[in-house]
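Researcher: I'm preparing a figure for a lab meeting and need a structural model of a single chain. I don't have an experimental structure, so a prediction will have to do for now. The sequence is pasted below. Please return the structure as tokens so I can convert it later.
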Amino acid sequence: MTYQQHIPLRPFNTFGIEAEARHYCEIHSVSDLQAIARQQGDEPMHILGGGSNVLLTGPVQGRVLHIRIPGRNVEAVSGNTALVAAGAGENWHDFVQWCLAQSLGGLENLSLIPGSVGASPIQNIGAYGVELKDVFHSLEAVRLSDGELVTMDAADCAFGYRDSFFKREGKGRYAIVKVYFQLTTSKHRLRLDYGAIRDTLKEMNVAHPDIHDISRAIIQIRQSKLPDPALIGNAGSFFKNPETEADTWQRLSELHPGMPHFPLPDGRVKIPAGWLIEQCGWKGFREGDAGCYDKQALVLVNYGQATGQEILSLARRIAASVQERFGMVIEPEVNVW
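Model: Understood. Here is the structure written out token by token.
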């Protein structure tokens, strides 16, 4: 465990925002985390993973616990299914690529998502027709009130669209230390029908794709739309795609012909937030160093020296304009500190 005071957090958040942690602890083991939890008083604790889904808006009071717990291995194989475990500090994309190297399927559509393994259940990360809950088995977490190690299954995690127990009732109460996944060893179920996957595979001259081809296609698609945080500060998609009732969608589609949408299993409809934002004229907008990316309106960016408050102010203005024009509320996917 590494403990320091007054540490700049710019290297640890993909927005590249300048902010200072009053107390900073780098956590490399479950026992480190338990020891901190058991000695902690009333000082608030903030869990930091890959820093790819957080917007820092000022100095962080309390203690920042930077989870760096490593490890990845196949725990068991039964028939066509493998139980795979990964430490919360593992880089998500590196873990996905490791699974592909073992010919394990299920995570390929989630390639190139930034962040850590430990953050993946919190957000119920998802992309191109797959969500984390589709491959989730269970997780281990330390309860911060007493340092107890607990195991949670999918029901305990209460997954929703970019949502989970850890963003609601469990917010700030647990730190995830290990995640278990159920992946396939053969006869993989390929998800090809979302977004531009089939078109990209065709461009790649792949007629009979496997899980490796899908991963490469996803990487190509994401790189064409999203800025590299090493070059332009960002946290990927800033807003969730709003969901609405079918009759509301029908009314909106009559007012706004051509509005894209995705029917949901429960009869509701999901509308791309990026399209709504673009229709309001924000795509490519820049004010100082805070802006809306010119290739994907869903992504807010820091062109160099923007503050977290400037990014947050822009996000609020964008959301207000979408609500005014379409009557729809778009909510941040990013956690604001």
